[in-house]
Amino acid sequence: MLKKKNVMYSSMFLAAAVALSGCSQGKEGAAPNAGSKAPEAGAAQAAVPELNITEPVTVKLYSHFAAINNENDLKAIFSTVMEKHPNIKIELIKGITLNDMIAAGEVPDLVATTQFYMNSLLPLGVASDMNDFVKKYRIDLGQFEPQAVKALQSYGKKGELYGIPYTLNYGVLLYNKDIFNKFGVPFPKDGMTWEQLVDLGKRLTRQDGGTQFIGIDLGTDRTVARGYSLGTVDQQGKPIFDSEGYRKVFGLLKSTYDIPGVVQGKKYMYGVDYLIKDQKLGMFPTLLAAITSRLKAVEEAGQGFDWDVTSYPVFADKPGIGKEIEFQSLMVPPTAKNKDAAYRVILTLIQEQAQSVMNKDRNLTILNKPEMRTQYASSTDIFKGKNLAGVFSVKPGETPIISEYDTENYKFLREAMDSVVFNGSDINSALRTANEKAAKYIAEAKAR
Question: Which domains does the chain have, with CATH numbers?
Fold first, then answer.
């Protein structure tokens, strides 16, 4: 019964979505859209309409893996909105799934999510086309990180824009200076390739005083591949594991697993906490948001250590291009009860004042302003004296093609990596097997 209701409401929402087009920026800091047609000489500029919320209203926000988990997270992002618009209360919805809300006919006014989950949300009908909103309030899409806009637009098969980006995540290489100093190895530098960092990692991986130190953990096969803008399928929806790109990624990963001491039993990946908490890992490529709160917590607990950051590793054939773009967006369901208030929240949040406040805490600005990014987390002093500017010396890479089959396909990829590491399988054979499994799974899923 729940499944029938779910389908019924999803259909209603999809039918309600209006496919409009246009581009352009809001009253607060309004500017013409970079992609819009310039007005003819002497033509009167259309006034941006006001959007004032005078009556008390509660905007219900649902966070779909967007790292808004409690009231502190809510305030860290929306504090400026709350101050400027006291009539608008933002309520974080918890304890219920989005599917159950839809089945009950109760949709939120805002849905926050990352671009990686947008494909799974669109069939639920919780995203309306924001092009009309962009055009009406003259939102300048050119003010945002370009790769974020490009990624968002890729989801609109007919030009729809299903969300407005509001915060960015950025790739970073975190390293433990204490371990480098202990073994007399030079620190990593901005712009280094994966291969150069693996060489440094070899020099750090050793037993010392009964402790096994690991020089570098490159991350999962999935994250490294995405850094090369590789997803699981091509534009035609066919799996791409049996490809030169994946052979390169697997070859790179295997070069670290072949370092004596890296593979310990069934463990060959260690993660960011192995560097921050256990302090036995020399280097780890990760995301700014993943380390900011962790590093602060360790320091407050009196377990701090000497660390620093550099830019995310690059591939030799893609110099200056780091980790794939990752960002969060706000979507407004077509059947939201408080659309105007939701729009007001978005309009205020993307303005420079709100972005600056948010950025100085722990949510990196989505605005394409390099000078603002260097103020990231400045209110916490966590990056004081650190090489934060170097992190932004590389640009984010393109988002790979995101597919509804990714969840299962990435399992096949992990199985391939495990077979290489633990069973000594040939890389070509392992990837060919993964490709065959993915092709079979996709065919069966389509048939269903």
Answer: 2-34+51-169+325-397 (3.40.190.10), 171-323 (3.40.190.10)
